[in-house]
Structure to design on (583 residues):
DNA sequence: GTCACGTGCGCC
DNA sequence: AAAGGGCGCACGTGAC
C-alpha cells in the first residue's frame, strides 16, 4: 500500500493521473491515468487514506472538493506551501515557490517568477516560456513527473535539516492548513442577510439607490460641516478636516480617533461617528454583501502562509477583519449551532512556554496570566501588567509602557531574555525561528546597506539607519512569538479537522464543519446535537497542539469555547477578548 | 483614465 | 503619551 499518492489533474476535464509513492517519494510502479479523478481519489482515500501530494492545494483540491464525498481527504503534502518553508531552512528565503520554480532549481534552469496571487493565470502570463496554469512549468515538462521529482527532493531536504522531525511537522501542519482553507472557502461562513440588513438599516438607514450615500451619513456629514464653519467639507479627506479645524482655531496634526476622543469640540463626536458608520458602509455594507455574502454564506479566499509569520492572510471581503458589530450576522442554520473557541492570552502563553520562565509559568497556571503577572509584579494592577507584557512582545520602549517593561525584565528575566535576544539577533542582521522552525525573512539588501556600521549601540541620534535597526529588532522580537503562536494554531486546526471528520454522523450532509479561523480563534458549524462532541474535539485538538508544538511544557493553552446560534452571542459583550477570562 | 502611495481603521 | 508587531481594505491625493 502506497504511503503517498501524487496527483496531477488534467488541464481541462475531470480526468488526471495518479502516481503511488513510497514515504520518501520514490515512485511505486507506473503512473495511472484515470477518467474521473475525484472518483479515483475518493476510492484510494477509502481504501488506504494516503497522504496526497500535489502542486497546490488551492487549485487541485479546490477543484476536487465539489466532487468528493462529504468525508473528504485526510492528509496532503502541498509542494507550493512546503517549498518556501524549506527555502527558509536553506538560507534561500524569498525565491519563487511554484512547482515550476522548484523544478527549475532542481535542474539548474532559469527559475520562473511566481504569478501574483489571485490573478487569473492566463491574464498575467504573457510570456510563453511557462505553462498557462499556475504550476509555472515549461511546456515540455510533464507535470506529474515534475511533481514526483520535486516532492522527492523536498522529502530529502526535510530529512537534511537540523531537526527533521520539527520541519516535517511544520510542513504537515502548513499543508493541513491548505486543506482547511480550501474547505472553508468552499463551505463558507453562515451569514444571515436578514440580520445584516437590519443592522445596516439601524446604523445607516435605507439602502441608497445607485450607490449613493445613506441618509444617516449624509445628515452626519451636514451636521459636521455646520459645526466646522459651514463651508463645504468632505469628511473623508483628512486634509480638508484638518484645515476646517484649523479655521476654528484648533490645530491638529492628525484626525486619528485617539486625538478626536480627547478633543473638546462639538465637531469631534460627529466626526468620530461619521468615521465609524462610513467605514461600515464602505467595508461591510450592501455592496460588500452583494459581492461576498450571497446565498447565506460568506465566501472569502484565505491565503495560507500569506503572512511571513505563518499567519494566514485573506483576499477579498476582509475575512479576517469582520467588525465586532457585524458578528451578529454570523448565524447558524436552523437546527445547527456555532461552536466558537478562542485561545485566550495565546501569545503571552507562547512566550511562557518557549522561555520556560518559572514566574510566567506560575502566572499562567491560575488561568488569567495577566492577573498572575500583576499579582507578582504590579501590585495586582492587571491593566498595567497586560500593557507591559504586550509592550515587551511588541518592542515598546518609550513612555510609561517602557517602564512597565523594565519591571518585567527584573521579575521575569528568562521570558524577557528570550524576546530581547530575538531583538538583538534582528538588529544585527540575523534571522530568528518559530517553535516549529519557520524562519523569518532576512533583512533586505537596502537594510544592510543603510544600517552597515550603524549598530544600535552606536546610535548618534534618530537617523534613519538607527530607526531601521530598531524596527528590524521589533520585527524579529515579535516574530518568535507571533510565528510560534501560528504554529500552535495550525496544529490546532489540523487536529480539529481530523477529529471533526471522525465524529459519527447520521447522514453525510450533517457533518460539523470548520468554517472560520482567525489567528487564535475557530468557529465550527455543527448540527445542534453534535455540539458537545465538537466541544470535546476542540479541547482535545488544543491539547494535542500544545504537546506537538511545545512538548512537555507545563503551560496550558486554554480554549474558551461557547455554543450559540450567533457569533455575537458566543463572543459575549466583552470589548477585549483577553478579558473573557474574567467572566 | 490608471497607478502608487499615504492615511486611517477594522481585525489578531 | 501616542516611535508596539502582523495584516486588508477604502479612500484621497498627486503623478502620469
Amino acid at each position: 500500500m502506497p504511503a503517498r499518492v501524487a496527483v496531477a489533474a488534467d488541464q481541462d476535464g475531470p480526468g488526471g493521473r495518479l502516481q503511488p509513492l513510497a514515504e520518501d517519494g520514490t515512485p511505486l510502479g507506473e503512473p495511472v491515468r484515470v477518467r474521473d479523478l475525484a472518483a479515483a481519489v475518493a476510492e484510494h482515500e477509502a481504501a488506504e487514506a494516503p497522504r496526497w501530494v500535489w502542486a497546490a492545494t488551492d487549485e487541485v483540491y479546490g477543484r476536487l472538493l465539489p466532487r468528493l464525498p462529504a468525508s473528504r481527504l485526510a492528509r496532503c503534502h502541498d509542494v507550493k506551501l512546503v517549498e518556501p518553508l524549506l527555502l527558509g531552512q536553506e538560507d534561500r528565503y524569498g525565491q519563487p515557490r511554484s512547482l515550476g520554480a522548484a523544478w527549475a532549481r532542481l535542474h539548474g534552469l532559469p527559475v520562473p517568477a511566481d504569478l501574483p496571487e489571485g490573478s487569473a493565470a492566463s491574464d498575467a502570463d504573457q510570456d510563453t516560456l511557462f505553462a498557462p496554469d499556475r504550476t509555472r512549468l515549461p511546456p515540455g515538462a510533464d507535470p506529474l513527473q515534475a511533481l514526483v521529482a520535486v516532492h522527492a527532493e523536498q522529502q530529502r531536504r526535510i530529512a537534511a535539516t537540523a531537526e527533521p522531525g520539527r520541519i516535517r511537522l511544520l510542513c504537515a501542519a502548513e499543508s493541513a492548513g491548505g486543506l482547511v482553507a480550501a474547505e472553508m472557502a468552499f463551505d463558507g461562513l453562515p451569514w444571515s442577510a436578514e440580520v445584516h440588513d437590519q443592522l445596516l438599516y439601524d446604523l445607516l438607514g435605507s439602502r441608497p439607490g445607485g450607490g449613493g450615500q445613506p441618509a444617516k451619513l449624509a445628515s452626519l456629514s451636514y451636521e459636521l460641516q455646520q459645526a466646522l464653519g459651514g463651508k463645504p467639507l468632505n469628511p473623508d479627506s483628512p486634509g480638508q478636516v484638518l484645515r476646517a479645524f484649523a479655521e476654528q482655531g484648533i490645530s491638529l496634526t492628525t484626525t486619528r480617533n485617539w486625538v478626536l476622543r480627547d478633543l473638546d469640540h462639538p465637531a469631534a463626536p460627529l466626526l468620530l461617528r461619521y468615521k465609524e458608520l462610513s467605514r461600515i458602509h464602505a467595508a461591510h455594507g450592501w455592496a460588500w454583501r452583494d459581492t461576498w455574502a450571497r446565498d447565506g454564506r460568506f465566501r472569502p479566499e484565505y491565503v495560507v502562509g500569506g503572512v511571513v509569520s505563518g499567519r494566514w492572510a485573506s483576499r477579498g471581503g476582509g475575512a479576517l477583519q469582520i467588525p465586532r458589530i457585524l458578528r451578529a450576522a454570523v448565524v447558524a442554520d436552523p437546527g445547527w449551532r456555532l461552536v466558537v473557541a478562542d485561545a485566550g492570552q495565546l501569545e503571552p502563553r507562547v512566550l511562557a512556554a518557549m522561555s520556560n520562565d518559572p514566574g510566567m509559568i506560575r502566572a499562567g497556571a491560575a488561568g488569567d496570566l495577566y492577573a498572575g503577572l500583576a499579582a507578582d509584579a504590579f501590585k495586582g494592577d492587571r491593566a498595567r501588567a497586560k500593557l507591559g507584557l504586550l509592550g515587551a512582545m511588541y518592542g515598546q520602549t518609550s513612555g510609561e509602557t517602557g517602564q512597565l517593561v523594565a519591571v518585567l525584565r527584573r521579575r521575569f528575566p528568562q521570558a524577557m531574555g528570550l524576546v530581547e535576544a530575538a531583538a538583538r539577533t534582528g538588529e544585527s542582521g540575523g534571522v530568528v525561528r518559530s517553535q516549529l522552525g519557520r524562519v523569518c525573512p532576512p533583512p533586505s539588501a537596502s537594510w544592510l546597506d543603510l544600517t552597515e556600521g550603524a549598530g544600535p549601540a552606536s546610535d548618534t541620534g534618530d537617523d534613519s539607519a538607527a530607526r531601521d535597526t530598531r524596527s528590524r529588532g521589533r520585527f524579529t522580537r515579535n516574530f518568535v512569538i507571533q510565528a510560534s503562536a501560528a504554529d500552535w494554531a495550525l496544529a490546532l486546526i489540523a487536529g480539529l479537522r481530523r477529529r471533526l471528520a471522525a465524529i459519527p454522523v447520521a447522514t453525510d450532509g450533517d457533518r460539523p464543519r470548520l468554517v472560520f479561523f482567525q489567528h487564535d480563534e475557530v468557529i465550527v458549524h455543527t448540527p445542534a446535537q453534535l455540539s458537545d462532541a465538537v466541544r470535546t474535539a476542540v479541547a482535545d485538538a488544543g491539547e494535542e497542539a500544545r504537546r506537538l508544538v511545545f512538548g512537555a511544557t507545563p503551560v496550558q493553552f486554554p480554549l474558551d469555547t461557547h455554543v450559540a446560534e450567533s457569533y455575537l452571542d458566543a463572543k459575549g459583550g466583552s470589548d477585549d477578548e483577553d478579558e473573557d477570562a474574567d467572566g
